[in-house]
Design goal:
By secondary structure, this protein is α/β, with parallel strands linked by helices. The chain has a seven-stranded mixed β-sheet, with helices on both faces. The model is unreliable at about 230-240 (pLDDT under 50). The chain has a single domain (about 20-240), classed as 3-Layer(aba) Sandwich (Glycerol-3-phosphate (1)-acyltransferase). Helix content is about 40%, strand content about 15%. The protein contains nine helices and seven strands; from the N terminus they run αββαβαβαβαβαβααα.
């Protein structure tokens, strides 16, 4: 109830700030599926990224956010009521992955920042395999989103937005689909999709591709890709939003 009452308010405020202070411009919206599950994957250079993505999406989506944010008094309460749930970074957080899988199996959109953390220098970081893993397990396409100049709208460590020197750019790329890698073993698809996501984000942000994920991380993701859907994720899939 709170979500549906306050969504228009937050949407209008964030969109106004992005357009006035950031002169926001977006392209590639035609690439975004209008129905069914989809995994949005933006690069991450500023704390302004989530609200900027929030106002550019054609559909209301769920967000995965670092667990530390939910420990902030008041802010964590707001996040939990605005279709966000926590993930423990740098760990194989199966609880978060099961919940994310449940969201996608319900046919809803999900936002994941695939680098796993904000880049202080604005450069693309190593991709984490979580988005590709979820795509392999649910069939949801991955839509890369290139963000530029949000770190001028809200520089790293700043508490308040300011006028951006350059227009904020939000560029959607073509979906990355599991079917495009059908010739590969299921476990190898996670590696291939993760690399493709990094290449697309590099193209959209006009940067060099990020380093490949470490072998150990990919090995763990490949093993999870081979696992059957858990009862927990199937329960999440049948639960109301």
């Amino acid at each position: 109830m709170i979500y549906f009452l306050l969504y228009p308010v937050f949407f209008s405020v964030f969109r106004l700030l992005a357009r006035v202070l950031g002169r926001m411009h977006s392209t590639g919206e035609t690439f975004v599926p209008r129905t069914g599950p989809v995994i949005y994957c933006p690069n991450h250079v500023s704390d302004a990224d989530p609200p900027v993505v929030f106002v550019c999406l054609p559909r209301r989506a769920w967000f995965i956010a670092k667990s530390e944010l939910f420990a902030v008094p008041g802010f964590g309460w707001v996040l939990s009521r605005f279709h966000a749930f926590p993930i423990k970074r740098d760990t194989a957080d199966r609880t978060a992955l099961r919940r994310a899988e449940g969201v996608l199996r319900r046919g809803e959109p999900l936002v994941i920042f695939p680098e796993g953390r904000c880049a202080q220098d604005g450069k693309l970081q190593r991709m984490q395999p979580g988005a590709a893993l979820l795509s392999v397990r649910t069939g949801a396409p991955i839509v890369p989103i290139g963000l530029r100049h949000t770190n001028e709208l809200l520089p790293y460590g700043a508490k308040f937005p300011r006028f951006s020197r350059h227009p904020v750019r939000v560029d959607f790329g073509p979906p990355i689909r599991r079917a495009d890698f059908a010739h590969l073993p299921r476990g190898a698809v996670v590696d291939a999709m993760t690399r493709k996501l990094g290449e697309e984000l590099a193209r959209l942000t006009q940067q060099s591709p990020p380093p490949a994920p470490p072998p150990g991380l990919l090995k763990r993701a490949k093993q999870q890709a081979e696992e059957p859907a858990s009862e927990a994720s199937m329960t999440e899939a049948s639960a109301p939003a």
